[in-house]
Amino acid sequence: MRVDYHHIPEENALIEQITGEVTLEGLIAMKKEEQERNYLNSSVRILSVFLDAKILLSVGDIKALGKWQTENNQRQKGGQTALLATEPVAIALNLFYSRETKSIRRMEVFSTYTAALKWLELDVEILSKHWKGFLSLA
């Protein structure tokens, strides 16, 4: 699993562009790295892009990730995450995951950048300055 980060401080936003095979260990490592880089806070808006990822998570993995987030990732309590995915498994697992972490963040699944960015209330022009190639995706 590879994660490319696009941190946009003036929007209090973080874009996680995730590719490859997504595992529980990979997602926990991603969250730990975000903590170390000090990307997470109580109002951070996260766009998690899983469009080019293969989800290898079981329901047990999702429960474990939700538990880890609740126990180890309180500094982002109150924020919101838009998950961008078209893979049916990713959408189904995210629906379960959002129940597991509802005490920490609001989370919704989207199939288009436009809908995800609107829900997060992110400015496309500011994103495009920090994320080269963004306009070609949106």
Detailed description of the structure:
- The chain is 43% helix and 28% strand.
- The protein is α/β, with parallel strands linked by helices.
- 32% of the residues are buried.
- The mean pLDDT is 82.
Low-confidence stretches: none
Strand order, main sheet: write it out: 1-2-3-4-5
Number of strands: 5
Total number of helical segments? 6
For the termini, the CA-CA separation is 23 Å
> How do the SSEs run, as a string of H and E?
EEHEHEHEHHH
Judged by helices, strands and strand pairing, the structural class is alpha/beta
Outline: globular
Average per-residue pLDDT, rounded, comes to: 82
Which percent range describes the beta-strand content? 25-35%
Helix content: 40-55%
Quick structural summary:
This protein is α/β, with parallel strands linked by helices. 43% of the residues lie in helices and 28% in strands.
